Every structure is written in structure tokens, then in C-alpha cells.
Amino acid sequence: MTTITVNGRQHEVAASPDTPLLYVLRNDLELNGPKFGCGLAQCGACTVLIDGKAARSCSVPVSAAAKSPITTLEGLGTIDKLHPLQRAFIEEQACQCGYCSNGMIMAAKALLDGNPRPSEGEIKQALNEHLCRCASHNRIVRAVQRAAKEMA
Amino acid sequence: MKPSLSRRDFLKTGSALVISFSLAPELAFGQAKPAPLPGSLGTNRMLDSWLRVDADGSVTLFTGKIELGQGIGTALTQIAADELDVDLKRIRIVHGDTALTPNEGQTAGSQSVENSGTAVRFACAEARDILVNAAAARLGVAASALSVSDGTCTAGGKSIAYWDLVADANLKREASAKIKPKSASEHKWVGKSVLRRDIPKKMTGGAAYVQDVRLPGMVFGRVVRPPSPGAQLVSFDEAAVKRMPGVIAVVRDGSFLGVAAEREEQAIRARELLKKSARWNESASLPPSGDGLYEHLMKSRSADSVVSEKTSASAAAPAKTLNATYTRPFQAHGSIGPSCAVAQWREGKLTVWTHSQGVFPLRGDLAKAFAIEPANIHCIHAESAGCYGHNGADDVALDAALVARATGGRPVKLQWMRDDEFQWEPYGSAMVMKLSGGLDAQGNVVGWTHEVWTHPHNNRPGALDGVNLLASWHLEKPSKAPTPADPPLPTGGGERNSIPLYDFPNQKVVKHFLPEMTMRTSALRTLGGYSNVFALESFIDELALAAGADPVEFRLRHLRDPRAKAVIEAAAQRAGWQPNAKGDGAHGRGFAFSKYKNLACYVAMVADVEVDRASGKVRVTRAVAAVDAGQIVNPDGVVNQIEGGIIQSASWTLLEAVRYDRTRVTTRSWADYPIIHFGDVPQVEVVLLDRPEERFLGVGEGSQGPAAAAIANAIAHATGKRLRALPFTPERVKQALV
């Protein structure tokens, strides 16, 4: 049994300690936000915040995340009570398929927490290792700028 | 995601206008062919196969076209809301379900708005007429006196709503298409950038994808693919894997190997151990790579056909002739989410949740693979990551169904790992385009030839013979792969967009179709269109240069179609095109144009590039596109498709080629298949030329070809060096600049 704290709630999970956090979040906690993309920490689709820092949950063992608060996309906001980043991604229509959006939003959250007024270059740099195949990059950058403005 | 409504739920009688799902009326032998109907109504002729109105005040649309992030669900509801005079919020939409929706084949070829949208438009216009007449009869007024607002019909102080008319109005009838849809000026929703209905749940962790389907008792599956195409499984250590925690079943059938486990990570670990212990017989079956690939393609056995030929006796003989050969490697779809499916067997019947682009063709191929009736298979579409054509979506459905035969009725969710997707998805075909052009003394093109060597671009499920599902070829009793075929003209496959729209007095286009695939190929966004436009529009620039002409003026002078000219002029104007401007060695700009498939949207583009001469790295800094897509349903949806297409094409053009040796595909992860990153994404501007009185023209694949050629032309403009071999990697560029 491992105890993890996700979106402010504690969960006991019956996964072996070396289980990648991603599968615990998706399958034990039934969270849809983090996605399996590569399992190699290359694409960013599985990104969550661990202790406020963006982390690739496909490559973090659940045991290593047990001591720190974990935030997923679901922890930011809900359809009825959107986080400014979620609202901005909707307003800017910042996706096609949306499979990478989780990682984009979570990485942007980590960025804005440390740098509330990032430049376009800083946003691109923060997201540079996140892959988007539909090529919504420019919309994503605009969405982050929009959210930053709203949160300022 | 909970499983969608069952057929029985949907077909509950009593409260709905539609009391049963009806298929096109069967024609008695000898009866005349039915009259043609617009769009997909032609093949799905009953009104109630497209929509239903319920007593609870909801309207449900049924479409065979699936949502894959292109926004089709939103566009179709916009069209329906306008024709029916109901609010967008009332409309629910069901995509691709073999028990519920019309069969519209594949969601492909930028045809969803053209085909499904046209059908929805005519079906809803006719349904409105039926409903309004029923309202008139109830209220005792003339139908023409009624006005309709959000489904409520009103005249002279009396009103009744569509949902109160479920007993009166019968939609279970064949469409006539005799009710004229509204004109553009009457549209409330069409033409507006309505926010897409699928996005909010995607941004908040809602159940949006097949990966989010969770069923009671569900277990997790993985496959262990052969290490190379054609490899045969000799042995593996089954006992060791069966002892692993959580493992429920190991499935071996011929060279197909799969595993199911209670937990996902257990299935992944079991896959690893199976991979380690499996012994395979491999053979060197892959083609050469590098330049050798293209020599190999041109020497392969081919079925040759003349795609287009035109001769003029009066045209002048060429004063100057140019020849050029262009190439494109095998390229991958590279979906961010590897393919996934959920399958469950119950009493000999199979249900599959799938992100296939065609649930009906998939059902047909699954039925063949399992030798059961299609009626015993229910395929339900659920979204996944963008596919950009035929990726592993269909194949993984068979994988999941094969593994689910061994789990005692428990559903299996099976997702491919990253290397499964990269190594086994069907690629976009490598191609060679050999062009020749003659200029007269005035610098006009008088002769043009375009030869293209290509593997097939459409090996999807649904072929008449054989089964197009990967695992079916690996079974102990393998299915036969269908005879490779390309879509016929006018859309074409490998020859797509090879016929110039320019007005050349002499022209000949020849296709060398290479049916023997050394690499498995199928539909990648645009099929042959991307590479043919790359070659054609690069070569136009080469001829313009030889003629001493400005590329934009040169194109305009050879075109007659006013809509083609209009997009070219609009792109040039927005980009601030300076005729005959010179590149400075590091910066340049290029132009390109195409009409996708020669029958869908018109796109003209300007690309600005920056070439780092030291490293050879090319960056596209800005792209400007002008688009004529006929009537536009959702302007932002069109812009999204066009700008996404440009950036994706920049990635294909500058970076992408599948790596392999003579035995194995060596592209296994993103490290082996780099794609564009944020830092290299160009700024994109899209100009829309709306033509509200024209028919819809598909846009999903309109910008990839022009983007490639505009980049090539911009590099030539910047450096004076012409690159003809895709992709333009730093090594290639550096080599060219020496």
C-alpha cells in the first residue's frame, strides 16, 4: 500500500511501489487528465505537478511521489469552475484533438506560478519539450498569455 | 467514460419521432436506380437515419463521420441548428456507431462537411418542413403563416413545439431533398466561429477518449509485436510470464503474441518479459534507405497509367527544357497517443470501442478475421489523439479483440506502446516525382510532364478482398492482405494533385503504381497530395526562375480559374509580396498554391525562412495563407485546420523520415523521429475568402502541400540552392550550401 495525496485528498493505493504514477492516477483514481503518450518522458502528455513542479508521471514511481502533494488537471478546475488556464484554452480553441492539452496546461501552470508575466519566448521555452502533433502551438501560446493576463 | 447508450435505449418507442432505425429501403430486383440525393444522403436515404426529435425537447443528430479534433461535431450541429431553427444547445450528436449511425465509410479526405454536412443540411431542411406542416395541421393555420423559434412554431398567438409533435410527424421516410435549404443570409449559426463542443471536457479531465473508457471487470492488454516485418515467432517462455503478478492470459496465435493483466503496469511488465524471452526468425525484407530507396522505387515492378494527357498542335516548341526529380521518404502519422481499443466478447458477440476513422469498414474486417457475421459485432467510436490518417487505430481493435477472447468475457483495454505505434503504423508512402517542363521564347510553359512512383495510399479496412488488419496476417491461419489499391481519380491516391491546374498546352502525367510494398503504407493526411504539390509547385518556381519571371506573376499568367487567382492575389497582398525581390543568402520567401485534390479548397501561401548557413538549420519564421473553402461553416475551425496543416507540414518538410535498416524499423521513439517544437513554430496568418453562396469545400488537407513547396521555394530564394529531397534536415541543407 502506498499513500498519495492528489488534488488535496489522500488515497491508499494497492500498486507496487515502482508503478509509474501515471497508471495509479488513471486507473486507481480514474483521473483522465494525465495521458499515456510515450512512457519515456519525451512528449509531456502525462504531466502533473508534484510539489508544484511539472513532472512526467509516466516516469515517476508512485513511491517517489508519495511524500509530496500531487496536482492533476482535475485539481485545477472543473467545467463549472474553470481555472483561468482552462478557460483560456477553451476561449482560444487551443487544440484540435486535445490529447496533449493536459501537459500543456500543467506545464503552463508551473510556469505561471513561478513567473506570472512570462514573455512569448519564455512560454515557448517552458513548453518546448511538450509535443503537439495537430500543431496548435500558436493557439497554446496565446492561451497561456490570455490566462496570465486574467490572473494578473 | 461510461459505455454509450445501447441500441435498445436509443430505440425505445413512445417518446420519439423516430421509433426505429431504418436502413435504406431495399430495392426489388429490376427496380430503377434510386434518384441521386445530395452528399451522404445518397447512400443513407432515410431521414430518421440522420436525426430524431424527442419529447424531452432534444434533437439528436446521427453522423457516420467521427470527431477527431477537426471539429466536425460542432460544424454539423451548426448546420442542423440553422435548418431546423433550433438552438445549438438542444442538439446532441452521435458519431460512428454501427448500431446507430449511418454508414459513411471513412472519415477522411477532408470530406466530412462536404458529405455529412450536405446530408445533414438537406435532411434537416426536410424534417423542418414535415414538423412545420404537422404544427400547422394541429394549430389549424397555414404552414406558411408559422414562424419557428428554437423549435416552437407560432402563428396568430397560438404555438406548438416540435417536441409536442412526435406523434404527428413521421421522419421514417426516404428523403426527397426537395426542400431547399436556407440561403446564407438566413443563417444564424453557419458562418460563425462557434466554440467547439468537444473542447471543455478535454481541458478539464472529462471522459473524452477511448483511453477513458472504463468498464466493470475491465483488464489491461498489451501486444508483443515481431521485431521486424515478416518475422516468425519461434518460441517464448510462457510459464515465466504466467507466474507474474496479475497476469490473466497469454495469447499466442501464430506470430501474434498478447497478454492481459489485472493492472496496466502488470501488462506492460509482462510484455517486457515476453519480449525478452521471445525468439523470432527474421529476414531482411526492407528496402534500402537514403538515395538508394528512390532508385529502388523506380526499378520496382509497377503498374503504369496515364493520369492526364493533353496536346496542342499549335503550341510553340520549347526553347528551353528543365528536368528535376523530387523525393519524399516514408513518413509517420506520429499520433501523440498510441492507438488504443477496448474489446469485450459476450456470448459470441463482440463489442469494440475504437478510434477507427471508419467503424463500419472496421466491423467488416473484424467479421472476416473472426469468421463471424458483422451483425455480431458492434463498433462504437470514441476519440483518441489525432490520427492524421490511417494509423494503428484499426489494428489495435483486432489486437484487443484477440486478447479479449482469453479473458472469460472481461473487457480488455489495450493500448499500443510508443514503439508499437512507430514500428507498425502504416506509413505515408515514399515517393519519387520526376518533372520536366518546356518554356517558349516568351517564357511561357508549353510542355509539362510529371511522373510519380508510389506505393498505395489507401490500405484501410473495407477492401473487397482480404483483411487490412495487422494481427490478422500474423495468426496461425493468416488472413490474406487485400490487393493493394489506390483511390481512383478524380481524387486519386499517389497521383493526387499531380495534374497541374495551370493551363499548359501540352501536358502528360504518368503514375507508376508500386503494389509490392517493402514497407506497409496507407493513408497519411493528403495521400500523395503533399508530395505532388511539393514537386509541382517547386518546379513552377524553377521554371519561373528560368523564365526570369516573378513566381506570383508566373503562376497567375498560367491560370484561368478566377478563384485560384483570387487566393494567390490575397496571399501575396497580405504577405506584402515584393515582385522580383532577392534573397540575402540567409533569408528568403517562397510562394505556392494548390486546390486540394483539384476539387476541394484553394490555398495559396507565402513562407518566410531563415537559413543558418553554419548549421544548415532552416526555420520558417512566418507563413501567410489565403483560403477559399466555398461556404464556411465555422471560420475559426477552418483557420485551425489550415494553420495546423501548415505547421505540421513544416515539421514533415524539415524533419521527418522513418528510420530503418534492411531488417528492422529503427524509429522507436520521439528521439528517433523528431517533430517540430515550440521554438521552431512559425507565426501563421490565415486569410479567409468566404463564398457563402458556394458549396462547402473540405479544408483539413488543404495547406500541407503548398506549405512544403513554399518552404522549398523560400530556401531556394534565400540561398540560390534548390532542395528536392525531403526532409530538409540541417545535414542536407549544409551539403547543398557547400
If you had to describe this structure to a student in words, what would you say it looks like?
The complex is a heterodimer of chains A (152) and B (738). Chain A is of the alpha+beta class. In chain A, 38% of the residues lie in helices and 14% in strands. Chain A has helices at 21-28, 73-76, 84-91, 101-114, 120-127, 137-151, and strands at residues 2-6, 9-13, 47-50, 53-56, 69-71. The longest helix of chain A is centred in the last third of the chain and has 15 residues, at 137-151. By secondary structure, chain B is of the alpha+beta class. Chain B has three domains: 7-203, Aldehyde Oxidoreductase, domain 4; 210-282 and 333-424, 2-Layer Sandwich (Aldehyde Oxidoreductase, domain 4), CATH 3.30.365.10; 291-330 and 427-457 and 493-737, Aldehyde oxidase/xanthine dehydrogenase, molybdopterin binding domain (Aldehyde Oxidoreductase, domain 4), CATH 3.30.365.10. Helices cover 26% and strands 20% of the residues of chain B. Chain B has helices spanning 7-10, 72-84, 112-139, 199-204, 238-242, 264-277, 291-299, 359-370, 393-404, 418-424, 529-547, 551-557, 562-575, 635-655, 704-719, 730-737; strands spanning 51-53, 59-63, 91-95, 147-149, 152-155, 158-161, 219-223, 232-235, 247-253, 256-261, 279-281, 303-310, 320-328, 340-346, 349-354, 377-381, 412-415, 431-439, 445-454, 506-513, 587-595, 602-611, 618-628, 683-688. In chain B, the strands form six sheets. A seven-stranded mixed β-sheet of chain B has the order 9-10-7-17-14-15-16, sandwiched between helices. Chain B has a five-stranded mixed β-sheet with strand order 12-20-19-18-13, with helices on both faces. The longest helix of chain B is centred in the N-terminal third of the chain and has 28 residues, at 112-139. At the A-B interface, α1, α3, α4, α5 and α6 of A face α4, α6 and α14 of B.
